[in-house]
Amino acid sequence: MVERVELKVGLFLLISLLLIGSAVVYVAYRKGVFTKEYIFTLSSKSGEDLTEGMPVVFSGFKIGVVSQLELTEDGSVFIKIKIPEKHIRWIRSDSTFIVNKPIIGQARIVVVTENLQSPLLSPEQIPEVTNVSDIKETITKVQPLLDKVTKIASHVEKLTAGISDPEGNVQKSLAHIERFTANFSQKKTLLEMAVSDREAIEAVQGALKQTKDLTEGLENLLAKIDKTVEKTDAVLVGEEGIMPTVLSSLRDILSKLKKLDTTIDNINKISTEASRASEDLKVLRAELDDAVEAIGELAREIEKKIPFKEKPEIKLP
Amino acid sequence: MKRRGIIFIYLFILSCSVAKPIPDWLSVSVSSIESYKKYYLSGRTEMAERQFTRALLEAKKTGNPEILARLYLIKMAVTSATLEELETKEYERLNALAPSPINETYFAFLSGNLTAADERFLPDQYRSFFKAVKERKNPISLREEIEKIDEPLSALIAVSVLTRLHLEDEAILKRAIEISSAQGWERPLLAYLRRIKGYYEQRNEGKKAKLIEKQINLLEQ
After folding, report:
1. pTM above 0.80, yes or no
2. How far is B130 from chain A (nearest CA, A)?
3. Measured distance CA(A286)–CA(A280) in Å, rounded
């Protein structure tokens, strides 16, 4: 009788242990304890906003965690991320990693992968993460450049107005030059006279309008970066994201400013005979060159921060 | 010693694997050479030259003669598309420093020296056209091959190769005029109008030649 009771208790304990064991194994299985995990290394210029255990997300889903942070000899930071086997397909050689710190909630690393056909990221490859604050900092640089463009364009406009004023100095200086007389009577502005078409004037007006639009738009964009809690890849680098928008506007302004090149050169040629105006024009020329160079530089900087941009190539036509 | 070796291998792997940003010289050079093409074809020589010099100065920073030779080849291709004589001096000087089968094949192709061109090294868009020219196919097939080339500049380059080999006909020249006109490329448009005018004059088709002359006058006004 005693033996039967002992047997029953034994069985009860055994079954209970088995059930507890299976539950633990099941929970562990569900938590991915038995899943093979891959470790990838990312690099960052600074460890700001980075913490161990920070989630790695793709399309809003958590696909891994930051397992370790290491300070390297050169002061940069290596970020080891642990990705379970079932999620490594999202991590491709051309994926981009963005450190995203929302105002509310935990910072995370957002993985942006456009081409899922690209080869998987090799463990030896160490891509650099982009920081959202870098993006904001870059966009902030646009503002002073826009001021510069506005200044240049207004100088050109002022000059244009000056030449159309019959009592103006430039007009007086040029008045004796016979070869321009015909032009003066037919054309409305110096720009038109200098290039003999309206393209340059349209470029000035276009640059002015574009700068004005971008200046207004920029404030909204910066506010968007600050306020958007979900700084998803679409908001930042998507087709109509912040970075491509700014980049395309800058490119537009740049092309319009480049059109002014010929105009300013032509005005300079004319102005050798109108000595009073020539000094101003030299300054204007230098300002234009500066602005073109600076905007070009900034556009390149933004371009580098946009993922999936094809590497340019000097191709034979 | 062993430790140094490990560090060296580690650094080597690291230098090979870190994703590199696009170098400034490359993006400036590419955008300048693109602007060069655009300005040259639209007849704005001064602007085009400025852009070409900029592309060259940026590429010079690499100290790589092959890249510089390629830029001169692009310049040659653009001038070839406008039926101008090829200025080969700079290209030849640079190519002698770093011979490249890609550059050499392209140069041979541009010059109309097809026997010296290796099809494998030609840009994809010309392969089928190249085969057709080499096999001396009839003008209709050649015209079809030109129509297959999507890129307008490449199509003009292909026509220019045919003119170098005296394989052009009225329809091929008309195609070149059509492309230049559609793109608003004044320089090649004038070049091909003059060529087709000469073509008509040779065949005593005075009426057609006069009509073309009127078009040329309209453009030159």
Report:
1. no
2. 15
3. 10
Rounded to a whole number, what is the distance in angstroms from the first to the last CA of chain B? Answer: 78
Number of alpha carbons in the 13 Å side-chain half-sphere of residue A70: 13
At B110 the pLDDT is: 93
Does pLDDT of A192 surpass 50?
no
Q: Tell me A106's DSSP state.
A: -
Please tell me what DSSP assigns to residue B151. Answer: S
pLDDT digits (tens, 9 = 90+) for A198-256: 455 455 556 555 555 655 555 555 555 555 444 445 555 555 565 666 666 666 666 66
Q: What is the dihedral of CA A30, A31, A35, A37, to 10 degrees?
A: 160
- Are B37 and A309 within 8 A, CB to CB? no
Q: Which residues pair with A70 in a beta bridge?
A: A78
In angstroms, the Cα distances linking A160 to A166, A192, A259 are 12, 9, 16
**Whether A127 contacts B19, CB under 8 Å:** yes
Q: What is the DSSP letter of B7?
A: H
DSSP A262-303: HHHHHHHHHHTTSHHHHHHHHHHHHHHHHHHHHHHHHHHHHH
Q: Which residues from B are below 8 Å from A258, CB to CB?
A: 35
Dihedral sign of CA atoms A174, A178, A180, A183 in order: positive
Q: Is B218 on the interface with A (CB under 8 A)?
A: no
Residue A297 has a pLDDT of 65
CA gap A151, A149 in Å, rounded: 5
Would you say residue A175 has pLDDT above 70?
A: no
If you ran DSSP here, which 8-state letter would residue B22 be given? P
Any A CB within 8 A of B163 CB = no
Q: Confirm if A76 and B14 have CB atoms less than 8 A apart.
A: no
Answer with the residue of higher pLDDT: A152 or A97. A97
Q: Token pair for residue A69? A: 């942070």
Cβ pair A35, A85 in contact under 8 A: yes
Q: What is the pLDDT of residue A241?
A: 60
Q: Flag if B28 and A126 touch (Cβ within 8 Å).
A: no
Q: In the prediction, which pLDDT does A265 show?
A: 58
